[in-house]
Amino acid sequence: MADPTQTGSLQIRNVSKFFGQFRAVNDICLDIRNGEFLTLLGPSGSGKTTLLMMIAGFLDISKGEIALDGASISDVPAEKRNFGMVFQGYALFPHMTVRDNVGYALSVRKRPADEIRNRVDEMLELVQLQEFADRKPGQLSGGQQQRVALARALCFAPPVLLLDEPLGALDKKLRVEVQEQLKDIHRRVGTTFIYVTHDQEEALSMSDRIVIMRDGAIEQVGTPKELYERPINQFTASFLGKSNFIHQNGKVFALRPEKIDLMPGNENAEARMRGAIRNITYFGSMQRIIVDTDEGAEIEVDIDVWRNASDLAEGLRVDLLWKDSAAVELQTG
Amino acid sequence: MHDKQFKKEMLAESAQAFRAGRMDRRTFLALCGASGVAMNAVLAGDAQAAADHVVMWNWGGQSEECHGSAIGEAFTAKTGKGLKFDTSGPLEGKIKEMVDSGNVTADVADADLFNAVSLGPTGHLEPIDYSVVSKEKTLPGYALEYGVSIILYGYAFVYDTEAYGDNPPQNWADFFDTEKFPGTRALYKWANGSLEAALMADGVAGSDLYPLDMDRALNKIQSIKDDSLYWGSGSEVHSMVVNNEVSMAIIWQNRGRNIENDTDGQYKLVNNQAMAMPGAYIVPKGNPAGAAVMEFIATAQDIPAQLALLDCLGMTPSNPEAFGQIPEDQQPYAITSAMNIDKIVYNDPEWWGKNGGDAVNAFLEAIS
Amino acid sequence: MQALNRHIHPGWLIIAPLMLMVVALYLGPILNILWLSVTDPEPGFSNYAKLTEGDALIRIVWTTVRICIITTLFSVIFGYSIAYAMVHCHQRQKTYMLTLLLVSFWISILVRTFAWLMLLGRKGLVNVTLEDIGLIAEPVAFMRNELGVLIGMVHYMIPYAVLPLLVSMQSIDQRVMDASRNLGASGSQTFWRVYLPMTMPGLVASTLLVFILSLGFYVTPAVLGGGKVLMVAEYISVQLLVTLKWGTAAMLAAIMLIGVLVMLWIMSRFMKLSTVFGGAAR
């Protein structure tokens, strides 16, 4: 179904967006590969949604260029870009049935009726909403609406699918479920997904690659594992997962709490730091322990509960240990 | 229009509050002042109008002032009773409604004589007491059981001297002749006067008008329909004329002077074949002041009152004794002055009282 | 009492006196009108029979309906454009526009009517200007005819048309329009297939409001129509106040009432009226 001349790779070249004096997006370069699941992750105001809207064509590009498979699309209006999009809040057409919503893109392209019907059936099957075809969006649950939005955006087989915080309105339990479905659908349709979120767990669990953004610029790009294991600066390290920051010899290291081992007493020769437990918080599968070190720092340690759970108590003196590879040196300044 | 209604209601309510002692005098006076109304005028609107005054129901504006100075002062001097006003306009439907509702608040309505014919027999009016009111102080035939004509007004016409300077229209035949006198006409929308003018234009003598031949009159009216506009109020025809929208207009003759002034003489009044309309005082059944109102009506018939109404409102006396005393400068605009009295025709209130409703409807249907 | 509570929510009992008052004050006069139309001047349907005697009444009703339809059409089209502009312009301009709109509610209808005469009358500003620059030899008859009535009425009705549309348009999520464009629809496709259907409740509310208000109009038609454009409302007032044919007046009022109810009923066949009157769209 996909147009073979469009493979769905995007090139973003020195793209900026100014709103008056304010630079919402500042000189971004990014290559998005065909068929990958790429997540733009950042706090609100980081420019991720602005960048997505420029890709979709809803916002003009102030400077730079966006290209699809090498050909610039900067001047192509939104309705001619053929990118699917799942909006925040879904933006379904409330006056149309699910079937008409999903078939809209084909219907405005004046495709024959039976082609539309078949394709819509195919899409409804993909999102498992066959029996809801004749309902109006108002009669569906949030999760079902989200799937209609997805089916509608995929129905015309776009080379690129843009998703703007599509799970924001769902409750946590449902969100995890839908994440898996999304990932599955991505595998099956093979379309390039560009996914905007501020939720790091969503980003980690679904993405092939994550782009971490701050203040309109890219902080770091990489696979979830790369970003988690090798953050290049304090922002990335703290935005994606939790991290302790250790200052030694004018250098700064990021140290994930679960990579620290903790031994009661003060006799361990390999101890990197020593201190006393200030606080223990129990999370079921693990417990989070805050240690005040003798150097005056505060270190968080995540310990699996099955290990020495009973002998830890607040005020207990402990040694902290970790492997060399666990501490990642960060860029500073 | 609503503003006025609101003000009136607010004041009527506060008048009651004031009487009942719920509002102090100063607040009440302030409210009256804010609304630009004299306190006694407000108190008059109350249903409990005592017999120390009579309430006149008219259209307000200038006629409120003029009735006060022309009749009210003499009436007070003679009887010690005051005169107050309800200015909401005594249309036939409103009189009927007031009497039917049993809440009669007016003593005398400044209306048309034909209203006396239509509302009298249905029990909505008090008969006129001709032991107090004089049948001789009005024109013959205009002193009826339920109403007496106090003044006359007339349906005459004005024409545009710039359009017809050398050969001006002189009568209703000319008014209806759009070939000889091209241009737009303005006629009265509620049929009155317009029907009679049409018949005279069609050759009916002024003395043979009644009963009106409706078909003939409406045919004549429709013959110039494409060149006609129809007005419903004095201010409307005034604006049609001064804005030069029409070349000739049937108007109330007492407006003639204003129009001649406002157009610097471009429009001129023609009184030939003007129709005299008897304006009358009628008394709603069960009026609060009772028989005292007859004294008021009699006062209005006196020559000084008659001449003062002419001077103030331009309404012509209906008391024949006053005709000779019409001042020189008022003569062209007074329908019964020596200058005009031989040229005019007289409205028949009996015919209008009995057939007016159907005539108005037939007229409206013909012009719309 | 317990048995009663099971069927009627106790909340209704609290508002029952008010409800009864509203019903009495509202339905009472309406029933009185219907009653009058079959009893005055004598019992029977003689008033309704008048509709078939001669074409005059039918013509007045038809004139009224025709003028109201045209007025509604133009008011709603202009109102739609204005509401659209208000929703999509900057907040500052929107405030200005809303102020102008609301101010126009407070200008007396007579003032507005005479203002049109000054502007578009025979010796009005427009005609004089056109004559002066030589575009026309004779004044154009804008006023004192049906055109004049329509101009005056449309002008008066536009603010009423705008308000329901404004509410309806403001509640629309702009992302829905973006979604339509994103799916490949052109501007006009988006308008006809998404925007218009989504503003339909507002459009219907606005149409009903303007049409029903227009039916009761008579100051503007009386003045701007030069007396020749007779609408039902004016005719009713003449029958009430001048000719005292209250039965005829009541009959015409009843016809108008029934006409409006029939119109609402027909519309309810095509759409849920509750959405028009602010209910939930489901």
TrEMBL record, chain A:
Annotated GO biological process: putrescine transport
Entry's EC annotation: 3.6.3.31
InterPro entries assigned to the protein according to its UniProt record, in alphabetical order: AAA+_ATPase, ABC_SmlMolc_Importer, ABC_transporter-like_ATP-bd, ABC_transporter-like_CS, Mo/tungstate-bd_C_term_dom, P-loop_NTPase, Transp-assoc_OB_typ2
GO cellular component: ATP-binding cassette (ABC) transporter complex
Domain ABC transporter positions: 10-240
Keyword Hydrolase tagged: yes
Pfam families registered for this protein in UniProt: ABC_tran, TOBE_2
Superkingdom as given in the UniProt entry: Bacteria
Top EC class, one word: hydrolase
PROSITE patterns xref list: ABC_TRANSPORTER_1, ABC_TRANSPORTER_2
Coiled coil, from the record: none
Keywords, ordered alphabetically: ATP-binding, Hydrolase, Nucleotide-binding, Transport
Single GO MF descriptor: ATP hydrolysis activity
Keyword ATP-binding appears in the UniProt entry: yes
Protein name: Spermidine/putrescine import ATP-binding protein PotA
Native organism: Ruegeria denitrificans
Gene: potA_1
TrEMBL record, chain B:
UniProt GO molecular function: thiamine binding; thiamine pyrophosphate binding
Domain of life: Bacteria
PROSITE patterns: TAT (PS51318)
GO biological process, one term: thiamine transport
Location(s), subcellular: Periplasm
This protein's GO CC annotations: outer membrane-bounded periplasmic space
Transport among keywords: yes
Keywords: Periplasm, Signal, Transport
Family as reported in the entry's similarity comment: Belongs to the bacterial solute-binding protein 1 family.
Name of this protein: Spermidine/putrescine-binding periplasmic protein
Taxonomy of the source species: Bacteria, Pseudomonadati, Pseudomonadota, Alphaproteobacteria, Rhodobacterales
TrEMBL record, chain C:
Cellular localisation: Cell membrane
GO biological process terms held by the UniProt record: transmembrane transport
Entry's Gene Ontology cellular component terms: plasma membrane
Keywords: Cell membrane, Membrane, Transmembrane, Transmembrane helix, Transport
Gene3D superfamilies recorded: MetI-like (1.10.3720.10)
Residue ranges of every copy of the ABC transmembrane type-1 domain listed in the record: 61-267
Membrane-spanning residues: 12-36, 56-83, 95-119, 147-167, 203-224, 244-266
Domain of life: Bacteria
InterPro entries linked: MetI-like, MetI-like_sf
Keyword Transport: yes
Membrane topology category: Multi-pass membrane protein
Keyword Transferase appears in the UniProt entry: no
Similarity remark: Belongs to the binding-protein-dependent transport system permease family. CysTW subfamily.
PANTHER family (UniProt xref): ABC TRANSPORTER PERMEASE PROTEIN, INNER MEMBRANE ABC TRANSPORTER PERMEASE PROTEIN YDCU-RELATED-RELATED
The protein, known as: Spermidine/putrescine transport system permease protein PotB
Organism of provenance: Ruegeria denitrificans
Lineage of the organism: Bacteria, Pseudomonadati, Pseudomonadota, Alphaproteobacteria, Rhodobacterales
Gene: potB_1
